[in-house]
TrEMBL record:
Residues 89-248 form the GST C-terminal domain. PROSITE patterns: GST_CTER (PS50405). InterPro entries: DUF7962, Glutathione-S-Trfase_C-like, Glutathione-S-Trfase_C_sf, Glutathione_S-Trfase_N, Thioredoxin-like_sf. Pfam families: DUF7962, GST_N_3. This is GST C-terminal domain-containing protein.
Length: 333
């Protein structure tokens, strides 16, 4: 039996969102299991667990499946509260939240994805480009990628300027002037770290160590902090697909099922058949199930695994997600 706090992270190494979670687990020294996934659909392990959500990463803790990096990090902060990386003061919490929104909702990641070099082998793989068209809802034809790239690079350069002349201008080591990397650093650094590792993504005439010394030094410090933490952190237990599925469906739930907020604007009832899905990307893939819990920040659906027929609870955040009642949904539990 593997020992990893009942955590299984379903991800692939190229995903910048998955790296956020891996960094967090590493910096915290939290033991976990992982099940590596294909870079594009289908992902049979996740499908076997009854989850339609198509984005990566997904984290299971027992038979609770957590979707969306924002929710995953919130759950880890709550489950391992001692030594949490999140800010404690209101003004620092605000900065942390604004950085999260800036990199995800503010368009930084979208522009980073548009800056992927057209010469990368993946960009010539029709399965990958078709998958990303499904994910983003726009063309990933090579000519479209080439046409968008100059505009994307302009926006990314502007983001580097903001970091260099704004957030990091006073020479601080970490975003919140903490003694070590915090959640605010994770929320800010991930798209830029990812781009710098993509050979040819950022032309040196636009973005370089000479032009943005403070940003480059900060990214290097962060990488070194993760490397140091990795040297002493428990190594993740890697599970094959069938092994991970079996482990999840045989586990217990990790948290109580909760209640449905009677004052919620949607007016949904506990036990009602509903579907939930993200509206910013991956929006063609809807999870369906019986409504278990609904709060201002989270919706939980009870679905059924395709292997073993066990109830699995799927957790989505509320931000940038849509939830609606379905009739005749055929949800069997």
């Amino acid at each position: 039996m593997v020992q990893h706090n009942d955590i299984v992270l379903f991800h692939y190494s190229f995903s910048p969102f998955a790296r956020k979670v891996v960094w967090y687990l590493t910096l915290r020294g939290i033991e976990y299991g992982q099940c590596m996934q294909p870079i594009y659909l289908p992902r049979e392990d996740i499908n076997a667990l009854g989850v339609k959500y198509r984005r990566i990463p997904i984290m299971s803790i027992g038979r609770d499946m957590y979707c969306d990096t924002r929710l995953i990090l919130q759950k880890l902060e709550a489950k391992f509260a001692s030594g949490a990386l999140g800010a404690s003061q209101p003004d620092e919490k605000a900065i942390e939240k604004l950085l999260e929104s800036w990199t995800i909702d503010g368009g930084i990641f979208v522009r980073a994805a548009q800056a992927i070099p057209p010469e990368m082998p993946l960009m010539k793989d029709p399965k990958f480009t078709k998958d990303r068209e499904d994910y983003m809802g726009r063309s990933w034809e090579l000519e479209s990628i080439k046409a968008m790239r100059p505009e994307a690079l302009t926006h990314i350069r502007d983001a580097f300027v903001f970091l260099e002349t704004g957030l990091l201008a006073d020479g601080r080591q970490w975003v919140l002037k903490t003694e070590k990397a915090s959640m605010a650093d994770i929320e800010a650094v991930w798209p830029f770290h990812w781009l710098l590792e993509l050979k040819g993504a950022l032309p040196p005439t636009l973005v370089s160590k000479e032009k943005f010394p403070k940003v480059f030094a900060w990214i290097k410090r962060f990488s070194e902090a993760v490397s140091v933490a990795k040297s002493s952190a428990p190594q993740p237990t890697t599970l094959k697909g069938a092994e991970a599925v079996k482990y999840v469906i045989q586990a217990d739930f990790s948290e109580p099922e909760g209640n449905v907020d009677a004052s919620d604007p949607l007016g949904l009832k506990k036990g009602q058949d509903v579907e939930s899905w993200p509206i910013d990307s991956g929006f063609k893939h809807h999870d369906r199930g019986k409504l278990v819990s609904l709060t201002s920040t989270e919706v939980v659906l009870a679905s059924q695994s395709k292997v073993g027929g066990k109830e699995v609870r799927i957790h989505h955040p509320r931000w940038n997600y849509r939830i609606r009642a379905v009739s005749g949904g055929g949800v069997k539990l």
